[in-house]
Amino acid sequence: MSTGALFQGQTPLAVRMRPTSLDEVAGQAHLLRAGSPIVALADPDAQAPGTVSVILWGPPGTGKTTLAQAIARSSGRRFVELSAITAGVKDVREVMQEALDQRDLYGHSTILFLDEIHRFTKAQQDALLPGVENGWVILIAATTENPSFSVISPLLSRSLLLTLQPLTDDDLERLVDRAVEDPRGLAGTVELTPEARAALIRLASGDARRALTALEASAGVAVSESGEDGGERPAVTDEHVAQAVDRALLRYDRQGDEHYDVISAFIKSIRGSDVDASMHYLARMIEAGEDPRFIARRLVISASEDIGLADPQALQIAVAAADAVAFIGMPEGRIPLAEATAYLATAAKSNAAYNAINAAIADVKAGRFGRVPLHLRDAHYAGAKRLGHGKGYVYPHDSEVGVVAQQYLPDELRGRRYYDPKPHGAEREVGARLEKLRRILGE
């Protein structure tokens, strides 16, 4: 077979290189120690420890499907795979009945691998419960989202939750090198330069599938350029990698945990006044295709929550950035987003207004409120004055200083303070003025 033909009409490299046993699994050493639940599941002679259902939670490309298939091959158990994208309640019930029949008639144990369980509705997950609870199946469910929010409590309590970690650079290096030489992979038809290996690992970002997909594409470019002269095997260079993969495909699911983690890091970096980290997370969201309106909304919230009156201009800039993004769209919208991010990250910070409204709402929710003082009540409707509404109210503009001493809070909350300015930025001046105002008001 020619080197060019090696890349034609084949199963993808990432699928061909899936381990056939736990010994071939790259990474996840914390889950593969002797006696661990995963190892016990793969042992056909294991008793109770090997019959418990598990939920595998981790980023894409960390080996969830690989572990499930390796367990099935090693244990000799019957293996059934369902995808939450295509399977319904009827499919689940059919699998459960078949598993029960296999157990009762032939003594066969069934592993049910359910990919993307977070996409299952509550009703679909409920259909899994009888089989899991009664041991008709050993469920191995995979998810990229936090199971605490995406898996129903009864199913979660009947399963072990195992967390997978992104593969390390060393894990990915071993995986890539093995794929180059393994007969199931590229079978030694190309060689990999150190620079190309480093580029593949960098682009993979801990994702084995991405690393192997990029390797296969890069090898295809190298083979195509070399021709089929039967000479030395072509070398895959970092230039081949760059041609095959024109951008780093960030591990970022707009509906998953990575979405929430990155936006959280973005806001916390702004709050912490680290403008460089703020720009990094902004770039990650932009490159991953995050909705720029979502980013703009978060900037407006940050300007109000974390900066407030320490720099009143921050909110105006954030709102202007949101308007600009809506007006000009992307990719140019990245520029006002970056401008607002830089301004907010370097601005003086105060959460005093944020704390004030939270404290006031807490009082209201707890029932700590009273009647509006009579002199503040509306006196414009017929009969209001007979009730004493508005009586004794002093118009502040009639005072030379624009402020008069009178009660504004209900009797039950007299003297209660919610707003406590910080000594940062413009709010330092607000604080000094506020002390004068409170003295005049008699607070």
UniProtKB/TrEMBL annotation:
Keywords on record: ATP-binding, Nucleotide-binding
Domain AAA+ ATPase: 50-186
Pfam families hit by this protein: AAA (PF00004), AAA_assoc_2 (PF16193), MgsA_C (PF12002)
InterPro entries: AAA+_ATPase, AAA_assoc_2, AAA_ATPase_RarA/MGS1/WRNIP1, ATPase_AAA_core, DNA_pol3_clamp-load_cplx_C, MgsA_C, P-loop_NTPase
Similarity annotation: Belongs to the AAA ATPase family. RarA/MGS1/WRNIP1 subfamily.
Protein name (database record): Replication-associated recombination protein A
Organism: Microbacterium marinilacus
Lineage: Bacteria, Bacillati, Actinomycetota, Actinomycetes, Micrococcales
